[in-house]
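Chain A, query sequence.
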Amino acid sequence: MYGRTFRRFPISRIVADLKNIRKQGTAGAFLSDDNVIADVEHFNNLCDAIIENKLHDLFYIVQVSAVGVARNPDLVRKMRKANFRLAFVGFESMLSSNLKDVSKPANPEINVQAAKLLRENDIGIIAGLIAGYPDDDARTIRKNWKLLRQLKNDVMWPQFLTPYPKTVIREELLAEGLVINKDDFKSYDGFSCNIRTRYLSGSQLFRTLQWQMLVDHFDVSRLRDGNWFLRNFGFSAVQRLVAANFFSILRSAITGKVKKRNFDI
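Chain A, predicted structure.
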């Protein structure tokens, strides 16, 4: 929305903030940058500062791109030393055609590399998945989900392709008549469906993803393979990952409406 520029806090400011929250008894922090690894040098310096100031007794959660992770294996290893424990990764799709449609630099091979690096460094993976690419239908959505599960991520975080203002994808979707909600930006939250595809109406797209999420609740493989949440939180993780959200997702699938965010961890 603001072009290719973004503001960086000085490392000294971040260190001061972390010391302050630790003094108040906080156990960890979510660094809310949309892609904290976009500026590799800045993030590398932050990891060094956390280690040097012995702030790695706090745990950290971040959002990163698959490309940023795959291209910087040494930085991922440093993240582990600084006690970065959990990462939301924007894999988005394992189908090359989808990523090409929206000019993403990632590809399935990069996604595989990124997931492998994070697992090797015991960093939990929240896999960001996008549904609603122009060529999506029920088959491609199911296929993409299955392929992303094969990365052995710890939890899926599905969202709909959203035509945010001032983005190239919005203009492309508008030109093709695929935006069904052009003006009510209150629902531009990633969880509400504001578009259709060439093959699915908005309601069909919404229900397709909701039903896929329901099916996934019965896939026990996501609780195997050393699931990060299960290892760190035991049975309470099962309650959150399986039981807590089931009925909310079922309601959304039946009614076609989002009542709340269904992806709380």
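Residues 11-255 form a domain with the pyruvate-formate lyase- activating enzyme fold (CATH 3.80.30.20). The CA atoms of residues 116 and 151 lie 8 Å apart.
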